Amino acid sequence: MKHDIATVQGIGDLFSFDEIIDVRSPAEFAEDHIPGSLNCPVLDNAQRIEVGTLYKQVSPFAARKVGAAYVAENIAHHLRQAFVERPKSWRPLVVCWRGGQRSAALTYVLRRIGWDARQLEGGYRTYRRLVVDQLAVLPRGLQMKVICGATGSGKSRTLQAIGRLGEQVLDLEALACHKGSVLGVLPEAPQPSQKLFESRLLTAIQRFDCTRPVYVEAESRKIGCLHLPAALIETMRAGECLSIEASFTARVDFLLHDYAYFLCAPERLDACLQPLRSLHSVDTLLRWREYASTGRWRELVSELLAEHYDPLYTRSQSRNYAGFEAPQQFATADLTPAGIDALAQQICRRPPEPACTASA
Hints:
With 360 residues, the chain is an alpha/beta fold. It folds into 2 domains: 5-133, 3-Layer(aba) Sandwich (Oxidized Rhodanese, domain 1); 142-347, 3-Layer(aba) Sandwich (Rossmann fold), CATH 3.40.50. Helix content is 48%, strand content 12%. The chain contains 15 helices and 12 strands. The chain has helices at 11-14, 26-31, 45-57, 60-81, 101-113, 123-135, 155-164, 172-176, 194-206, 230-237, 248-258, 266-273, 282-293, 297-320, 337-347; strands at 5-6, 19-22, 38-39, 92-95, 118-120, 143-148, 168-170, 213-217, 222-223, 226-227, 240-246, 328-332. The strands form 3 sheets. The chain has a 5-stranded parallel sheet. A 5-stranded parallel sheet has the order 7-8-6-11-12, sandwiched between helices. The protein has a two-stranded antiparallel ribbon with strand order 9-10. Strand 4 (92-95), helix 5 (101-113) and strand 5 (118-120) form a beta-alpha-beta unit. Helix 3 (45-57) packs antiparallel against helix 4 and helix 12 (266-273) runs antiparallel to helix 13 (282-293). The protein is elongated and about 70 Å long. Mean pLDDT is 90; it is low at 356-360.
């Protein structure tokens, strides 16, 4: 094996280097990358397309002539801007798509300067295989406590409060940038790619202590457009269920606050209701649109819960989660921030915070 090639057996081997330099284009990097890596493209998005087109339509030789000039210019830029302050002892790992010419070019220059740079054998594809392999195994070793509850029960907020108490939590909706329902699209926060979601998910799972429970919110196989790995969803569905039994009024109040951004953009809400056309009558959808256009939000939320979310929730949970038949139940009529904190303490079996008493 060449002395400038790094062969890795596990993801941990990647982080034995001082830094990971990803030389792929910004578009490739945005789709997915090794966590913590630095993007220093040797071909930008437009240059990569240009060189690839020359390779296919003219000849590999023509592509290499143009590509080499771009690569040289970009490497010179990175040397001046990104690497100039690195010490002589710096030991980077250089990554491209498959461990080919792009990473080889930067590795060669860095080694000629005097740094102990290594090129990742197989490139990003090696890392991606490791992610897929690990996500098929690691979730099965987790002890999962699953927070259940009808829509509007404050499950995500409760999960975050449990985390603040020092417990291990896996916040899948935060990783997926989606609230997990037909109205779950977050404004100005697009979902990551499937690959980037899985990278973030594996990073989170690797941090867990498998001797302690991991709290997670009950989810379906998809969050928005993203799929959960089979090993994870199977482990969740076999976990202990902790069910929040919130009053209907508290749930409506909670949703009116938690989804307040829809109140400023009823047209966005109307678009989110379109997938429900196959589940509800035209008259029902027209009535809900009228509620939104006239600002009758409490009526809209109440009907969505009673006629759509609650029936769907009961069918889904009883069919998919083994522990849902006899869950631990936590009743509440208070889903304010203080009420959710108290609920989290109850779920974690923590004594409530002592009330502050006024001094005499």
